[in-house]
Write a structure and sequence with these properties.
Length: about 525
Amino acid sequence: MAERSDRAPARWRRPLLRWLDGVEAGWAVPLLIACFVAIWTLYLAIAYAGGGLHPDTLEAWTLGRNFAFGYHKHPPLMGWIAASWTSIFPLGDWSLQLMAMVNAGFALYFVDCVSRQFVTGHKRILVLLLLMVTPAYQFHAQRFNANTVLLAAWPLATWCFLRAFETRSAFWAIAVGCTTALAMVGKYYSIFLVASFAFAALAHPARRAYFASASPWISVVTGLAALSPHIYWLATTGASTFTYALAHANGNALSSLGDVKNFLLGLVAAVSVAALIWFFIAGPRLKRFPADFAAMSAGLRLLFHIAIGTIALPVLTSLAAGTDLPSLWAMQGLFLFVVLVVCGARYPIERFYTVNTTVIVAGVALVAVLVAAPIHAVYRNIHGYEEGRNFFAQAASELTRQWHELTGQPLGAVSGDDALAFATAFYSPDHPYYARPFEYQYKWGLPRKTTLDRGWAALCFEGQDHCRRWMEWVSARAGRFVRREFTVQASLWGRPGVRRNVVVLMVPPQTNGAPPESAAQDLSASKRSPQ
């Protein structure tokens, strides 16, 4: 049936076949990726119409407001990207949602750069379509953070490594050094990708020629040079990002075995739909897999060893060191296996199947936008989010209004519950700075005297006892303060939703003579750290 359809396609298939004809002409892949970015940005805009941005995205933007070669919690790439984006695009939910999906679009483009090293024509499209039915490039990607920046960084570095290994040219060797450094300042988990490159090169039959050339050594020197500002930052600031990362190494052999099991099952679940589609595409030809694997080209075998390394090395590290191992940390490496399966098939794939997969992907996207997104928005308007996203903009607006009423000055600094503080910095028209240094983010310390003198506010949701106790401790030492509560209500397309109370503590600037309204009596002990 597939061959017959390709010979005499139905009328509705012909536009899609003309699109597939444009793959090697250079316009079909960009068109597919542009449509993907557009429709999933629309999904995010509808699904989260009544809610704010995810706290991870707001944290990335907060980090990027102060350029640095490192931050105390995360490597700096996510902050750099958010700052670069918002220097061009206006602040707003749609803007950062678009940023997240453009990042996913670049990821797919770089995957195509890898694919076209091995296949031509519509097989390149098939690789992208199978990835589009995994959750990595839409639902995972929308939480723009240190994990999702690797969606684009890993395939870019892999493409450069494949080219450097094949050509051994100085250009590609330098590109490998720069792109692996970029991945490392995205998240230190990328060390497993770098180690996988070394493992794959050592396992390859052409290893002698590669290591005898200047290429790998140029890559090492370039990578270290590109990383040197961040390394210097680590050396001069106490390497707090490593301290934060090592907080995940608190397990034992039994917990690590459970983490490894969940890690592998999570990755299998993520590719299950793509695997099912490939099962129907390959059909009886699946029995050729052993022969295809044995006849795998040298380039694909290099990619195979990279793929194995990105799974085996984290697993071995987790078992040896007792580290956490969420499957989300490895989502950016799923493309390696999809490329291997599709490009490793030595038999031709009829365009009939690529057209059908296109229809499936488009159908899923349209159902997501037209059905799932409105249902999600309505449900969350009624039931809310755990992190309180429904209330971010309202709480920021009301705090700003009350601060202006109290002081007549712009709000300059804010902290409290991190999600609310990040949101206030983003949604308030004053865009106050997040006042707590990230090295003390989880210590709930007393703000610096200079911070209080200049004016400062904090927010907590009612019921957050740890935040309430901290407020009482701060207000007892602030000398002058105003403490208030107000209610915020979610709203979606004019329909009121769930309500929640917010507690705010405002310390007016020292020059402001506004009298305090209350005084807290709870002097709960807490470790003091500057803020």
